[in-house]
Amino acid sequence: MELSGLLDEEVLVTSSLSALLTVMFALGFSGNIYVLVITALSPRPAGSLCVHVMNLALADLLYLSTIPFVLFTYLARDWYFGDIGCRVLLSMDLFTMHASIYTLTAMSVERYQVIVRPLRAHITQCHQKVTNVGIWLTSFFLTLPMMCMMRLQDSIYGSGKKICFPTWTPDSFRYYLTILFCTSILAPGLILLYIYSCLVKAYWASGQDIRQSRRKHKQCLGTRIFTIIVVYWACFVPFWAWQLAKCYHQDLLGLEASAQVYLNFGVTCLTYANSCVNPLLYTLLTRNYWEYLAGQNREIRGKGVQERTPDH
């Protein structure tokens, strides 16, 4: 009876987690495809923020594309995607999370330049291209050690199954994960906190110097970018806390192997949830951005009419 109960519990957990990941994949993939399509095909004027939003949606799509492989491996209880699959699929989360947070940092820096130093803000298409290429290349090189050191090996339990396992020493792996935590969470977090503290001061000091409607749109842009950043932290900080806890306090966790598997699956689902929620936030952000551009255009046209109107 006890064995039967354990099997029923395992089937229930497996079915629940599989259904959850399937729903996340369907919602997140369709949502990010929608963001890419409406941003690329919109007749409204494009800008650097829209380019960044497309980068964010692309990073989410790349990360969500790993769900079918995770599901199949979890249900089959074996690895069928070879050595290359180990290197690429198990590094995709590190690659995309760096691309996302660096893109969000670039968006925030541009907001800072436009609000705090408007006379020095010269964001050209060349600048955008260099920034975007730099973001993806930096993310790739930070993930490259994981791709190089991951190998497909036989299970240590002698069951004939295959597992993906890093070939470096535990100390080296611990140091590498610590560096990745600093590059994806800690360092960008400190930079973003500084930027947004400066933006808050700028908004507070602006008072009525900026027209109310225009100031409202600027504040909404900054607030919605910051909301995306907060959601990123909420979804990825538990993931990193668990990874570092396994590296530094493995003997202090006091959890059974099955509990560790479920906890690992839970924090992974939380990172996937970030890519599911993001399309809604991206849509609100681009909508506010287009409203801001439309307001700027109306203001420019209004000034033009005033200049052409003769004085009486």
What does this structure look like?
The protein is mostly helical and 312 residues long. It has one domain: Rhodopsin 7-helix transmembrane proteins (Rhopdopsin 7-helix transmembrane proteins). The chain is 80% helix and 3% strand. The protein has helices at 2-41, 48-64, 67-76, 82-89, 92-116, 125-149, 170-206, 212-248, 257-308; strands at residues 150-154, 162-166. A two-stranded antiparallel ribbon has the order 1-2. Helix 5 packs antiparallel against helix 6 (125-149).
Tell me the layout of helices and strands.
Elements: H1 2-41, H2 48-64, H3 67-76, H4 82-89, H5 92-116, H6 125-149, E1 150-154, E2 162-166, H7 170-206, H8 212-248, H9 257-308
Antiparallel strand pairs: 1-2
Helix pairs in contact: 1-2, 1-3, 1-9, 2-5, 2-9, 5-6, 5-7, 5-8, 7-8, 8-9
